[in-house]
């Protein structure tokens, strides 16, 4: 059936629902003035991390999920240990929130979904609006820590939103466009894979390689050895890649771009509405542009081969990959923005 579109008051755009109209101006403002004209840089990465830290604030100890509480009750929630550094993006987003008419929860989720559309290889993420503003902060301990055990992590996600074991792996696809500023504060902007500005499967290759070095200092809580200079590895990612409950799903993403995009879209759709009744929200997903394609293949970084893989999935051998040419390289940091 044909869907009738409404003309927006801006005189330029049309939308399936008039409530989506105000997002066009917000989209342009964010793309130009927060995301540096469509980059997949630090502000995009931090905006995605913020969608998670707001949404996961829910469970048997309370919290409203994706309700903007992390920004509305910033003084309380940013003091939680697992939210270290998240104040940076909250404060960068504040002027945009002030300039546009949108609830805080809607804003946080929209900014993340829009930002990810700048990353080559990413799926189009859905956008819903209509979340009421939070009336209370989330409790502490809802956001997983990189030093948590797999048991603790799986239990937290189950409690927050009935996420299954494979869905937890799907959520960690996010770490393909990610870096850490505070795990080792001596090397801010150190990425989790060699392509932090591409939504590719390299993260799943590189987390399976044997760790041999600390890119900065040793002894940081939640960090384990990584295979590459300039790359940092979280203990939680290391363990999820090797635990018998999660290792095969983890490995299944290696060089499987289609599955990567499909599963991240599915699990983000669930995460982005936590604490809300999706049937009471309005779907404005049409605001999200088709992300640039990723046409490459996963590879072993230069100097690495299948001999460096710590094979953890018992059922399936590690996929065959080419090795990048040349001598071992180091990974460049994500520039601060
Ligand atoms: C077991 C679950 C998770 C743990 C333990 C975890 C932990 C972390 C840590 C420690 C950092 C580095 C923070 C810093 O030092 O700057 C980080 C970054 C990040 N995380 Fe996660 N995370 C988890 C799940 C997720 C999920 C579900 C998402 C989104 C769906 C996400 C998105 C990100 C992004 C995009 C960054 C990079 C931020 C930047 O580059 O500035 N994470 N995560
Ligand atoms: Ca990547
Ligand atoms: Mn950062």
From TrEMBL:
Any one GO biological process: response to reactive oxygen species
Catalytic residues, chain numbering: 53
A Pfam family per the record: Peroxidase_ext
Region annotated Disordered, chain positions: 317-337
Domain Plant heme peroxidase family profile span(s) in chain numbering: 48-317
Free-text cofactor note: Binds 1 heme b (iron(II)-protoporphyrin IX) group per subunit. Binds 2 calcium ions per subunit.
EC number(s) reported in the record: 1.11.1.-
Record-linked PROSITE patterns: PEROXIDASE_2, PEROXIDASE_4
Disulfide links within the chain: 8-21, 20-284, 40-119, 248-313
Gene Ontology molecular function terms on file: heme binding; metal ion binding; peroxidase activity
Keyword annotations: Calcium, Disulfide bond, Glycoprotein, Heme, Iron, Lignin degradation, Metal-binding, Oxidoreductase, Peroxidase, Signal
Sites annotated Transition state stabilizer: 49
Gene3D superfamilies attached to this UniProt entry: 1.10.520.10, Peroxidase, domain 2
Similarity remark: Belongs to the peroxidase family. Ligninase subfamily.
Protein name as it appears in the record: Peroxidase
Taxonomy of the source species: Eukaryota, Fungi, Dikarya, Basidiomycota, Agaricomycotina
Gene it is expressed from: MNP3_2
């Amino acid at each position: 059936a044909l869907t009738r579109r409404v003309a927006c008051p801006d005189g330029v755009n049309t939308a399936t629902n008039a409530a989506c109209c105000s997002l066009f101006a917000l989209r342009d403002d964010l793309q130009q003035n927060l995301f540096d004209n469509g980059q997949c840089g630090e502000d995009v990465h931090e905006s995605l991390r913020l969608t998670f830290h707001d949404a996961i604030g829910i469970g048997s100890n309370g919290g409203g999920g994706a309700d903007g509480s992390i920004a509305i009750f910033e003084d309380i929630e940013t003091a939680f240990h697992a939210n270290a550094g998240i104040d940076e993006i909250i404060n960068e987003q504040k002027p945009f929130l002030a300039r546009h008419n949108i609830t805080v929860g809607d804003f946080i989720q929209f900014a993340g979904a829009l930002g990810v559309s700048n990353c080559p290889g990413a799926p189009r993420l859905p956008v819903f609006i209509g979340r009421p503003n939070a009336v209370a902060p989330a409790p502490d301990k809802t956001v997983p820590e990189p030093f948590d055990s797999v048991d603790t992590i799986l239990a937290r996600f189950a409690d927050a939103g009935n996420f299954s074991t494979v869905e937890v792996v799907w959520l960690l696809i996010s770490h393909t466009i990610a870096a850490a500023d505070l795990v080792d504060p001596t090397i801010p902007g150190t990425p989790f894979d060699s392509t932090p500005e591409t939504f590719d499967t390299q993260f799943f290759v590189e987390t399976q390689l044997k760790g041999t070095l600390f890119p900065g200092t040793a002894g940081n809580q939640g960090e384990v050895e990584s295979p590459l200079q300039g790359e940092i590895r979280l203990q939680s990612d290391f363990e999820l890649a090797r635990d018998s409950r999660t290792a095969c799903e983890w490995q299944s993403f290696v060089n499987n771009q289609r599955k990567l995009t499909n599963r991240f879209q599915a699990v983000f759709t669930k995460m982005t509405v936590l604490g809300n009744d999706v049937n009471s929200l309005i779907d404005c997903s049409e605001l999200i542009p088709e992300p640039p394609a990723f046409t490459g293949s996963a590879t072993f970084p230069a100097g690495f081969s299948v001999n460096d893989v710590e094979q953890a999935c018992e059922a399936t051998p590690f996929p065959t990959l080419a090795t990048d040419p040349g001598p071992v390289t180091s990974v460049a940091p994500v520039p601060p923005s």
